Automatic annotation (TrEMBL):
InterPro entries listed in its UniProt record: FAD-bd, FAD/NAD-bd_sf
UniProt entry tagged with the keyword Plastid: no
Keyword field: FAD, Flavoprotein, Monooxygenase, Oxidoreductase
Gene3D superfamilies reported in the protein's UniProt record: FAD/NAD(P)-binding domain
Protein name per Swiss-Prot or TrEMBL: FAD-dependent monooxygenase
Sample GO molecular function, one term: monooxygenase activity
Keyword Oxidoreductase: yes
């Protein structure tokens, strides 16, 4: 069996590692011109389900390294005013493991064959062992052996495979072809996200980790990323074949702006600073000392799974089919869950003890159900994080 994965995000790479470990041939195709073309380095919180999925897809010899580059966190989820006084609560305290997306992505890239500059333009579904349209061979359970061939821009060679997996994010080219009626919905919410190196001064803001700091029409969310062992050092000591970035502890911050906001002529850092005048001096210093190269304005868009597409050798994973609002804290975790589930469904299909289409259908049935629930949960959580104007 050969699988083509479109998209080198966390979900697609996790799937590729899991298939590789199961002895299934896999290629990853990424539209970006290089793996490091875009910064993808903010912290995320791993749920028990997400962490278990990672463990399932990664080689066991890397498990100690994964354990070393995550950290436990417990946050009280308070509502604070702009002087950092408690004025309310968002809900029960939350615990989990935090990991840096950039570091985790480099771990997941290790040993994989990733084709960059490969923008998907289309695919053909083919039947038959000879790879041509028409009647053909049978798989282990008697289903028609469906094949698929992906096509890419700029004259890149077509990629034949038994299964094509669209793991190419909220703007998925695979989804647009497979289920064109499923499109992203813009919530109208905009936020600026960035990171600032951790210092003793900022470490003292620990009561604000996981809190919403509510201002006039904006809110600021803070989270700490600390490593049990610095990632580069951890890889050198625990898995020398892995090269991880030399990333230090930092504070991740995100400011949620009024609906449909733009930055105008300001850069992201300036836009935040202009909205926190008079706030606690530690918060102003946090933004002033931010890594300006890695601060950006993002929109919150969601993709809600709707009608089931026709069964075949093409499927979807992660944000391509169930993009969530980050306020749900479940986007990456759900993508990792997809990867592990699809891996487990494909192993017997690769062994010839189960039909491929049956295996993919089982994956889709489960994924669409919990994926839709993840989107609903994230949207229900969104209003609590959006600050209301304090004056008219």
């Amino acid at each position: 069996m050969r699988v083509s994965v479109i998209g080198a995000g966390l979900g697609g790479l996790c799937l590729a590692q899991g298939l590789r470990g199961a002895g299934i041939d896999v290629d990853v195709y990424e539209r970006d011109p290089a793996i490091t073309a875009r910064f993808q380095g903010y912290r995320l919180v791993l749920s028990p389900t997400g962490f278990e999925a990672l463990h399932g897809c990664l080689p066991p010899r890397w498990h100690p390294l994964l354990d070393a580059i995550v950290d436990d966190t417990r946050v009280e989820r308070l509502v604070l005013d702009t002087r950092l006084n408690k004025v309310g609560e968002l809900g029960p305290a939350r615990s989990g493991l935090v990991v840096d997306r950039h570091v985790l992505r480099h771990l997941l890239l290790t040993g994989l064959d990733v084709h960059t500059g490969a923008a998907l333009t289309g695919y053909d579904v083919l039947n038959g062992e000879d790879g041509k349209n028409g009647k053909g061979g049978k798989d282990g359970k008697g289903d028609e052996a469906a094949k698929v061939q992906a096509h890419f821009a700029q004259g890149a060679s077509p990629a034949p495979a038994d299964l094509l997996v669209g793991a190419d994010g909220v703007n998925s080219a695979v989804r647009a072809l497979l289920t064109p009626q499923t499109v992203p919905t813009d919530t109208g919410v905009r936020f600026v996200i960035g990171r600032t190196p951790m210092t003793e001064r900022f470490a003292a803001l620990s009561h604000a980790w996981g809190a919403k700091i509510a201002g006039d029409g904006v809110s600021l969310l803070l989270g700490a990323m600390r490593f049990r062992i610095p990632p580069k050092q951890a890889a050198e000591e625990l898995a020398p074949e892995v090269t991880l970035p030399d990333t230090g502890d930092y504070v991740r911050w995100a400011m949620i702006l009024p609906p449909n906001s733009s930055l105008g002529e300001q850069n992201p850092q300036q836009a935040v600073l202009s909205r926190i005048k008079g706030w606690h001096p530690d918060l102003q210093a946090l933004i002033e000392q931010a890594d300006t190269d890695n601060s950006t304005l993002l929109s919150i868009r969601v993709v809600e799974p709707r009608e089931r597409w026709a069964p075949g050798p093409v499927t979807l994973l992660g944000d391509a089919i169930h993009a969530t609002s980050p306020t749900g804290g479940n986007g990456a975790n759900t993508a990792l869950r997809d990867a592990d589930l699809l891996r487990r469904c494909l192993i017997p299909a690769a062994a010839g003890t189960r039909g491929l289409l049956d295996a993919v259908g089982d994956y889709e049935t489960q994924m669409l159900e919990y994926g839709a629930e993840a989107v609903r949960f994230s949207l229900e959580a969104l209003p609590a994080y959006v600050a209301k104007p304090q004056s008219v």
